[in-house]
Amino acid sequence: MDYVSALVPPVVMAVFFAALVRVIVRTQGGAAKAKEDAAVDAALARTESGRRAPVGGAPTDA
Fold first, then answer.
1. Would you say the C-alpha torsion 34, 36, 40, 43 has a positive or negative sign?
2. pLDDT of 35-56, one tens digit each?
């Protein structure tokens, strides 16, 4: 019975990992994809606008 107790944790982890991958793959795209893409684009735009040096100001160290 030692082999059963040795195999149970890896099997349980494999099942949960497979379920996690399945959930991730199934939730890609769909109705919320455009909304998520817009949120990411807005965050990237805010980040890029914050990195630009002010006009006539001293250059920033990046």
1. positive
2. 888 899 999 999 988 776 555 5
State the pLDDT confidence band at 18, using cuts at 50, 70 and 90. very high
Report DSSP state, residue 61: P
- C-beta separation of 59 from 52 below 8 A: no
Tell me which residue has tokens 């630009």. Answer: 52
Whole-number Å distance between alpha carbons of 20 and 31: 20
Q: Which residue has the higher pLDDT, 28 or 38?
A: 38
Euclidean distance between CA atoms 18 and 12, whole angstroms: 10
